[in-house]
Amino acid sequence: MNYAAKIIDGVVVDVIVGDAYWASTKRGGFWVDSNKKIGVGWTFSAKDGFKPPKPFSSWVWNTNKEMWVSPVDKPDDENNYVWSEEQKVWLVDSEE
Predict the structure, then answer these.
(1) Which of the four pLDDT bands, split at 50, 70 and 90, describes residue 96?
(2) Domain residues for 32?
(3) DSSP alpha helices (H): ranges in 1-96?
(4) What is the largest CA-CA distance in the chain?
(5) How far apart are CA 96 and CA 87, in angstroms?
(6) Is the CB of residue 23 less than 8 Å from the CB of residue 3?
(7) In the beta sheet, which residues pair with residue 81?
(8) What is the value of pTM for the model shown?
(9) Residues near 94 by Cβ (< 8 Å), separated by ≥ 6?
(10) Do 24 and 30 meet the contact criterion of CB atoms below 8 Å apart?
């Protein structure tokens, strides 16, 4: 499925199923095509393409994985974890 995103100042403000040419001629503005699902609030640059919103200020973009990653790896065990931005660590989810 193809999507088109309306971009204003590097931020996605609207998304349709369709193509950027149709959207720009019928709806106006600057539109960019995407072959993956994107959402309002994502960012776009010609260099990096589309990125979802950054979940926490300490996280960094991993270009190989094409996703935001925490500065500390999440433990790989049977527990569920939540990120603590204040402590910059993964904590066991106490709501289990």
Answers:
(1) low
(2) 3-92
(3) 20-27
(4) 52
(5) 21
(6) no
(7) 92
(8) 0.78
(9) none
(10) yes
- Round to whole Å and give the CA distance between 70 and 50: 19
Tokens of 92: 């066991």
pLDDT in tens, 32-42: 999 999 999 99
What single string gives the DSSP state of each residue in 23-44? HHHHH-S-EEEESS---TT-EE
Residue holding tokens 């994985």? Answer: 65
- Two tokens, residue 13: 């403000």
What pLDDT score does 59 carry?
A: 98
pLDDT in tens, 56-91: 999 999 989 989 999 999 999 999 999 999 999 999
CA angle 24, 27, 33 (to 5 degrees): 40
Instruction: Say how many Å lie between the first and final Cα of the chain, rounded.
Output: 37
Tell me the residue type at 6: K
Total structural domains in the chain? 1
DSSP 8-state secondary structure symbol assigned to residue 5:
E
